[in-house]
Amino acid sequence: MDNQQCHQVFPLEAFEQAATPFYYYDLKMLKATLQEIKHFATAAGYVVHYAVKANGNARILSEIARAGLGADLVSGGEMRAAIKAGFSAESMAYSGVGKTDWEIRLGLEHGIGCFNVESLPELEVINLMAGEMGTTAPVAIRVNPDIDAHTHRYITTGTAANKFGIGIEALQSVVERALQLPNIRLRGLHFHIGSQITEMVPYEMLCDTVNQLLDDYARRGIEFEMINVGGGLGIDYGQPDAHIMPDFESYFNTFKRINLRRGQQLHFELGRSVVAQCGTLIGRVVYVKQSRDKKFAIMDAGMTDLIRPALYEAHHLIQNLTSPSTDLETYDVVGPVCESSDVFAHDCPLHVTRRGDLIAIRSAGAYGESMASTYNMRSMPGIMFSD
Ligand SMILES: *Cc1c(COP(=O)(O)O)cnc(C)c1O
Predict the structure, then answer these.
(1) What domains can you pick out in the chain, each with its CATH number?
(2) What is the best residue among 122, 190, 195, 197 to mutate for testing ligand 1's pocket, by most ligand atoms within 8 Å of CB?
(3) Does position 90 have pLDDT exceeding 80, yes or no?
(4) Where in the chain does DSSP place strands (E)?
(5) pTM of the predicted model, to two decimals?
């Protein structure tokens, strides 16, 4: 068996025994990544939350909770999963433009650390519900800083044209309202400008916006106890073995640009960069089909297991783990689902591929399993962990 093109060592014997497709998670890699994050963030006194939506697998969540990260949530379901996995309620931040009544109530019942509020009507509802429950809701106002993170249009979140957060021009009135409302405790401001951001420039722009706002509010006598700059740090999908972790040192250092006031805490919400590289989608080639112009490697894994290529035109490194050949050929690597977008890669170089070969789709730990569906009445992908 030829496993040499992968720096990551896969347990091929276990793979051969398993029903495909399945996600393989390397927990050692996850732990090493968590150590690296803690090393650079803790040194700077930062608080890091993990964005559960990237991967809500129970075992992965408990590993991350054990490492001491907080949780960043976008639904009541995620809140339940995070509580079960051992995250403390105090460490939880809850974002989302459409929080429903039961989700707000659940957060208040558990005493979560922060509601990241995305509109004035939401702020009013949280205040009412906290009043009814005889409690006070800790909130941060999510600001839309109108920064273009130059990422895919479906994963940019911080420009004026999208639904997230409150524009700078409306911010002052929402902050004032939050300070008036009896059952709201305003903790700070929240930002999240997008995802798969691989350059530091958008983050530098974010820091400048934060500094400007902190100065403006200080002049009005308003001090915040915390600033949450969200997540979005990208990973290397092209060469995962060369960059098994993103440059967390540069990332966290970039935020030293923010002039934090005394006692003010800086929070982060990292998703993809925590879990992407530890996960691989493993599938088998069902057929190799030659058409007039192309060779297709048709897999038993498809867009229902990993939707990122179909949804965001995302590229993942694909490797044949069992080809005996050292020759490369180009294939369109496709799934079996009845959608033309069910394509993992066009013109992808693979070692000569036959029916039955095991194929690895790398860097699939984030927004892979968590976005899987049963469309076409397919089964959910299996799961295998390293130990
Ligand atoms: C999705 C999300 C994150 C995490 O984004 P990544 O790109 O996975 O790091 C952080 N904060 C909020 C509010 C989010 O919606």
Answers:
(1) 27-276 (3.20.20.10), 277-386 (2.40.37.10)
(2) 195
(3) yes
(4) 22-25, 47-51, 70-73, 92-94, 114-117, 137-144, 166-167, 184-190, 226-228, 265-270, 279-290, 295-299, 318-320, 328-334, 343-351, 358-361, 382-385
(5) 0.95
